[in-house]
Structures are given as C-alpha cells and as structure tokens.
Specification:
The protein is an alpha/beta fold. It has helices at about 15-25, 45-50, 70-80, 100-105, 125-130, 165-190; strands at about 5-10, 30-40, 55-60, 85-90, 110, 135-140, 150-160, 195, 200. The two termini are about 20 Å apart.
C-alpha cells in the first residue's frame, strides 16, 4: 500500500476545493490525508467541512497578530506540528510571504480559476468575460512570492459560452478545479513533479 502524504489545507471561504480533496482522500483516489485545515476567517464554511471529516482545524485571525510575520509564523508552527508534506491553498485569500515559503520550499500549491498567466488576482472569471476570451479554465501551480505566478503543474480548459455569466462560468470552472487539484496532489504524492526554474516537469 502506497505511503500517504500529509496535507495541510489553508482556506478562507466555503471550501469546495477542500471538500473535493477530503473526498478524494477518503475514496483512495489520492494517496494523501488532510492532517489540518487552517482558516484566517472565523466561521468559514471550510472549518465545518473539516469537522465533518474529523480533521483538526485551526483559526488564525490576522487581526489578532501584530504583523504578517507573526501571523504566518503561527501558521507555520501549526503545519510543522502536524508534519505536513504539502500545503494546499484552497480559496485562501491572502498573499503568502517569503518566510512561509522558505519554511516549505516547493511544497505550497494553489488553484486559480483562470488559465495563468492570464487573469491573475481576484475575480478571474469576471476578467475573462470582460476581455471576451473564448476559452477560460483553471490552473494548479506552485506558489512563489508573486500573485498567481509560480510554476504551473496542471491546467484545464473550459469554453466560454455565449450567454455565460460570472456565476455560470464559475460553476463550470469549479468542476474542473475539483478534478485537477486532486490529480496534482497525486502527482506530488507519487514523486512525479520536479520544479526546473519557471517550469514543472512531470516525470
């Protein structure tokens, strides 16, 4: 039986990608288990999802810390206490700092609802519709110090339909997010990802 890698998941909101990861772990689709869920938002639905799967959860409200450094140091301490191998950002709405990244080099990944490098940042689906693109999608990538910029692991394309709204496009992209995030985690679990400069080589 393959050894399961230990995941730490950071989420700020509803946690649908967290749910997909938890379900993939439970079904054996990925050789991983979520050891801790951390949210910066007290009352985030992601915390409820963690509880339903009996996964430990922690709240780190940025407002109670004197600095970003102190805030991230507390999160790093929690993650290291649970001996996580990989950190997954799942709707985590903060920019990760250099000290955090230094603690987990090439071990922090994110999902973004656009085909990076197009439409980084907030409201990616709205940006895509306003730009008039015919194809959107989502990207799983390693994190670096720039917003939605790190080396790309996987992408999935989603056609933009004539009558799409932000919400309808968002829902179709979300289905692909749930699929490729688990695929990317499994590639990591199998030791098949190698970061080479700005690129990720899949072995």
């Amino acid at each position: 039986m393959p050894k399961k890698i230990k995941l730490g998941v950071l989420a700020s909101g509803s946690g649908t990608n967290l749910q997909a990861i938890l379900e993939s772990c439970a079904s054996g689709r990925i050789d991983a288990e979520v050891k801790i869920v951390i949210s910066d938002v007290p009352g985030a639905k992601a915390l409820e999802r963690a509880k339903k799967f009996n996964v430990p959860a922690a709240i780190h409200d940025r407002k109670i810390y004197s600095s970003k450094k102190e805030y991230e140091s507390a999160i790093v301490k929690d993650l290291k206490a649970h001996e996580v191998d990989l950190i997954c950002l799942a709707g985590y709405m903060r920019i990760v700092g250099k000290d955090f990244l230094a603690a987990f080099p090439n071990r922090v990944i994110n999902i973004h609802p656009a085909l990076l490098p197009s439409f980084p940042g907030l409201e990616a689906q709205k940006q895509a519709l306003e730009y008039g693109v015919k194809m959107s999608g989502c990207t799983v990538h390693f994190i670096d110090e720039m917003t939605d910029h790190g080396p790309i692991i996987l992408q999935a394309a989603v056609p933009v339909l004539k009558n799409d709204t932000v919400e309808s496009l968002q829902q179709r992209i979300l289905k692909e997010e749930h699929r490729i995030y688990s695929e990317a985690i499994q590639l990591y679990a199998e030791g098949k990802l190698r970061v080479e400069g700005r690129k990720v080589k899949i072995l």
